[in-house]
Amino acid sequence: DMASFAEPVKTPLATPRDLPAADRATEIRLTPQQLAELRLAQAWVRYRRDGVAPPVDGAFEKEFEPARARVITHRFFGHLATGAYGGEHRLEMPDEVVDAIAALVPKAREIRLSTLFVLFNPKLKAALKEGLANGARLSIHFNGDKTSRESMPLALSYKHSLEDVIELMKAGAVKVAVMDQARYRYLHKKLFVVDDHVFFGSHNFNLPSTISNSELVVEVDDPNFAEAMSLAYDHDFLFSGRPLTMKEAVADYDGSSVTRWLAKFVQGFF
To answer: How far is the C-alpha of 139 from the C-alpha of 148, rounded, in Å?
Structure first.
């Protein structure tokens, strides 16, 4: 049947005046943050193509210079092998990563932290409280109740995080967001941004990393890189985080005394 092979009827494309006004609009409205991200992406493309990234207008109108960077290692087994940090002295174990961050935080203006859960090394918590007392602004992004249940029974890590979170919220300008999304999704990013310094690697920036693991972290001291990582952090904080208020944190903390006891018991096996 040749009729089935007939040429399809061609209709002329609609002209702009035939389209609804909303569909004729070609202007893309970008927020300052989206514009900065777009310019950063443009700079990256030019760098990959030409080998040298040119100056970019707006938020990134700076010369791209080689960043100062170093690798910091926390040698857990090396410290343990000295015999000085066994048993009750485990919490006294030095941590080179914590030392590097704690040296910057007291005089910082902006601090951003992303981690699985919050249980600070005492030295780092003291430095953060000092920074907050000096006017720093701190953002913390970690796993909430729902996502914590996917990686640890009874959301132990979330409940165990609340004591330090509440203490810091009382100490100064602290914004907190928790990842609390669908099943099998949880936050695993380890990022610490202190003004122009960026720390990233295997360290979770919490006490278990100090007293149970060897860790490796890269520190980059560069304002352009720090600005880019801060934008990425802020995007995740806003779109994949749910704000955690002081009232909610205190309610969750007060209602989880047994769970928190169990979490501290489990911590003893780190």
So the answer is: 19
